[in-house]
Amino acid sequence: SALVEGDATLDRFAGIVACGGFSYGDVLGAGGGWANSIRFNPRTREVFADFFARKDRFALGVCNGCQMFSHLAELIPGAEHWPLFEKNRSEQFEGRVSMVEVLPSPSLFLSGMEGSFLPIAVAHGEGRAVFADIDGARVTLEEGLACLRFVDGEGRPATRYPENPNGSPLGITGLTTGDGRVTIMMPHPERVFRSVQNSWRPDGWGEDGPWLRMFRNARVSLG
């Protein structure tokens, strides 16, 4: 609201996070409305376009924030391959713990985490990735721009429900830009960054869960 009114800018921020949890109203499709308040307002459109264009800035979108950023792909350099996110194939809200694989990608948030298989919280009704064409998901994987995917109990890409809770092709549930500065994901790493937030954990985890590394990576990126 402060950006819309011209009372604030993003100039003094190194990073922005668009959160989940119905951040723009307790309705489905909130991410699209959130994005439209930026896209169709000349002031906010310019503010966000300038922010995304800077090489010393980063951004993370989670759940509704993932939806929001996907609708802003035209303003984000290197996000041309991103899908939109539509209603789950199950036709219902999915709230569960799922398993994901962290894929090799340039994402600064996931640096050093590639190859990990980790539990993560899922809470969305519209998380199914819909690419512009039938080969979009495959090409995104091949080019290393998909950073997270759902896997089954044996670590294989999850293509069936409920291991793949929303029906996204090839299990893709997180993407990044070519330079890794902007990352979007549908699951909620911020809900399980402490060991005690997990329903089960190995004894050796200690106080911090593995997802805390995402946020430490962001801090490291600041130099």
**Residues in helix, %:** 10-25%
Rg is 17 Å
Counting helices, strands and paired strands, the structural category is: alpha+beta
Order of helices and strands: HEHHEHEEEEHEEEH
Number of strands: 9
Query: Could you report the average pLDDT, rounded to the nearest whole number?
Result: 93
SS element count, helices: 6
- Tell me which oligomeric state these chains represent: single chain
Poorly predicted runs are none
Neighbour order of strands in the largest sheet: 1-2-9-8-7-4-5
Q: What about the largest sheet?
A: 7 strands, mixed
**Outline type:** globular
Q: What distance separates the N and C termini?
A: 30 Å
List keywords for this structure.
single chain; 223 residues; two-stranded antiparallel sheet
Structure write-up:
This protein is α+β, with helices and mostly antiparallel strands. Helix content is 23%, strand content 21%. It contains six helices and nine strands. It has helices at residues 2-5, 30-39, 42-53, 64-71, 136-142, 212-221; strands at 15-18, 58-62, 84-86, 94-102, 117-124, 128-130, 146-150, 172-176, 182-185. A seven-stranded mixed sheet has the order 1-2-9-8-7-4-5. The protein has a two-stranded antiparallel sheet with strand order 3-6. A hairpin with a 5-residue loop joins β8 (172-176) and β9 (182-185). The longest helix is centred in the N-terminal third of the chain and has 12 residues, at 42-53. The radius of gyration is 17 Å and the shape is globular. It starts with a helix and ends with a helix. The mean pLDDT is 93.
